[in-house]
C-alpha cells in the first residue's frame, strides 16, 4: 500500500465515524462525536495493519488478514457495555452501544479498502438514527406513557403532594429518577402512564398548579 492509500483509508474512517457520532453528540450521549471517530479510526488502523503484516510476511508464514479485525468486533462489546445504564425498568444507552459497534465495522470496511460498503453502511446508520429516531418520537408522543421532569422545592412532604395528585388522577408511575440540583430544589423524572381519555396538557397543568412545583419538560 502507498502512503496516500493508508492516509485515505484512515481519514475516510474518521469522517464516516464522525458522521454517525454527530447524532449522538447532539443528544448529549456519553459516547459522542470524538468517541465514534476514535472507534472507527482505530478499527481502520487495525485493518490497515493487518493488510500490511499479511503482505510483509506472507512468504514466511501463513497469516489471516481478518484475524485482527475479528478481535475488534468482539472487543468493542466492552466499550458498548459501558454506555448502557439501567434505571429501574428503563434501560438507556442501547442505541449508542449499537452505533459504536456499527462504526467499528465501518472502520474495518474503510480500513480494508471496501469503500462502497463503508459509505453505504454509514448512510444507512445515519438514516436509522435520525429518521427513525424522529418516527419513534412521534409514536411516543401519541402514547399514553411518557416522561415528565419536575423541579420541586426540597421541603418535607412536597414529593408526597405530587404523588398524591398522581393517585387522585389515576396516573400510574412506572419509574422515578432523582437528580439533586442544589440544597433547595431537586429534579425528579417520572415515567407515567395516563388513564385512557386523559389529555397530557390537562395533566401537566394540574401539576403546575401545585405550589413549589414547576414542570421542566
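^ Assign residues to that structure.
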Amino acid at each position: 500500500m502507498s502512503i496516500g492509500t493508508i492516509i485515505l483509508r484512515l481519514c475516510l474512517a474518521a469522517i464516516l465515524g464522525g458522521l454517525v457520532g454527530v447524532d449522538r453528540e447532539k443528544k448529549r450521549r456519553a459516547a459522542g462525536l470524538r468517541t465514534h471517530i476514535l472507534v472507527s479510526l482505530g478499527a481502520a488502523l487495525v485493518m490497515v495493519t493487518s493488510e500490511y503484516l499479511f503482505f510483509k510476511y506472507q512468504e514466511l508464514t501463513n497469516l489471516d488478514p481478518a484475524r485482527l479485525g475479528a478481535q475488534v468486533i468482539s472487543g468493542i462489546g466492552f466499550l458498548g457495555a459501558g454506555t448502557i445504564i439501567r434505571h429501574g425498568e428503563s434501560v438507556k444507552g442501547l442505541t449508542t452501544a449499537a452505533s459504536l459497534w456499527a462504526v467499528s465495522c465501518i472502520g474495518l470496511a474503510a480500513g480494508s479498502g471496501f469503500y462502497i460498503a463503508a459509505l453505504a453502511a454509514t448512510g444507512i446508520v445515519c438514516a436509522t438514527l435520525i429518521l427513525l429516531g424522529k418516527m419513534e418520537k412521534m409514536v411516543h408522543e401519541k402514547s399514553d406513557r411518557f416522561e415528565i421532569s419536575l423541579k420541586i422545592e426540597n421541603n418535607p412532604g412536597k414529593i408526597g403532594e405530587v404523588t398524591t395528585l398522581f393517585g387522585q388522577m389515576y396516573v400510574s408511575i412506572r419509574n422515578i429518577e432523582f437528580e439533586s440540583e442544589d440544597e433547595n430544589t431537586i429534579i425528579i423524572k417520572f415515567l407515567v402512564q395516563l388513564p385512557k381519555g386523559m389529555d397530557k396538557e390537562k395533566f401537566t397543568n394540574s401539576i403546575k398548579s401545585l405550589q413549589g412545583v414547576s414542570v421542566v419538560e
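Residues 3-140 form one domain.
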